[in-house]
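[audit] Reproducing an earlier prediction to check determinism. Same input, same settings, fresh worker. If the tokens differ from the archived copy the diff job will pick it up downstream; this log only records the rerun itself.
[audit] input (161 residues):
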Amino acid sequence: METDINLSKIGRNSLVLLRILIGWHFLYEGVLKLYNPAWTSKAYLSSAELLRPLFQWLSSDAMIHLVDNLNIFSLMVVGLSLLLGLFERIGSVFGICLLLIYYIAHPALPGASQVGTEGSYWIINKNLIEATALFVLYHIPTGSYFGLNLLRKILLAPQTK
């Protein structure tokens, strides 16, 4: 689906920069977790207050290894898709899903425990802000302005003489 949005060059470049920075953040988080053998999401998930039974199950000994590996893999794939501008709409959707899971596990609600979270400002936190930015990027084809989607479009375009 090609979105017909008339943006200035500065507007397009600003959104491309936003996509790249968010992609870097996702990729960095995934790589950091991959190369830290002590990292696990067990404490974060087991301390969740909303949907407690679900997050307790995800943090169980039977599931935590799979959950941790899926989290790392997902962070890295989303990061690469956004950084490279290739299938960035799909990457945006998966990124939104990850961020909303993180938010639901520890929402920034008054009285809710904020164990293991950062950047929480009464209802709004950094996960919700970044998910909203990805929602905007989902609707604007920044990969067709700068990224491998642009290169793919150029290479696959019918040659006219």
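[audit] rerun output stored. Observation attached for the diff report: Residues 44 and 67 are 12 Å apart (CA to CA).
[audit] end
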